[in-house]
Protein: Cytochrome C oxidase subunit II
Amino acid sequence: MNKKPKAIIALVLTVLTVALLIWTCFYAGGKYVVFDPKGPIGQAQKELIILTTALSALIIVPVMILTFFIVWRYRDTPTNKVKYQPHWDDSKKLETTWWAIPIIVIFIIAVITARYTYLLEPSKPIASTQKPVTIQVTSLDWKWLFMYPEEGIATVNQVHIPKGVPVRFELTADAPMNSFWIPQLGGQIYTMSGMAMKLHLQADHEGTYFGSGANFSGEHFGQMRFDVEVQSDEEYKNWVADIKKQSKPLTKDGYLALAKPGLSQPAEYSSIPDGLFKEIVNKYVVEGSNPHAGHGEATSTEDSSKSGTEEHAAMDMSHMNMSGHN
Structure:
């Protein structure tokens, strides 16, 4: 068989493969959930992925085409009549071109990435007229515990949020480090013992979304999944009221049993022990020290405000004492 048809077939197959990948990622009915965002954070992350991929393609695609062209054009065959120039080794125009284009593209990608990095900072609240819903998340072996401190309820392996309302997740771990991920709402963030990370997300469409632990954490890692139910405000309030009426409370003994390694079915609790999340975060902190204070020790908004007030008061008192000594 002639080599030319082989090369043409290879090129056609390559183009079809790339086209198939693009179609499945963007037009195959939302099967690739990262490309089917349902909230502002997920949408911004999708835009960043598309922009950086397109800019990278400006370099990668021409390089691949030129590679194929050069290999084909200057192949060693008896019939190839391409001019042979053994002493040609430099071209200022070509050198300038293939250095300048990547540098410009990389600079543009750097600017875009820096902008989106600031915009998508996980601990940065989402601008909204709605009051955020606070959900305290604890990753366990091999399950997820969600506590709603304002509503006084808790769930296991399921989380409900109202549509169009920002959600402030406070995340920690009482097990090996994991990664909390709801692909259609936003990117991953780690859960770690002794830490209380912050993540702000929002869902703009009702529905059931996939959530999981995205960090390998042992035997049942693949089953650390949870459902995210996005409801209307009225449905969400009714759901909270039903849990308070129909579910049993979560006690400290109940939590200790839940925290033991093992799988768990979705569950709901009508109440939670006061300060449980803070106890989980501080569980491994040695008395008299706080090595993670600068990285997000667990404090509620009220606790943070109180701590800040006490700190300012102490500073004012110290200033007054110093003035008196002077």
In short: The chain is about 40% helix and 20% strand. The longest helix spans residues 40-73. The CA atoms of residues 169 and 218 lie 24 Å apart. Residues 291-326 have pLDDT under 50 and may be disordered.
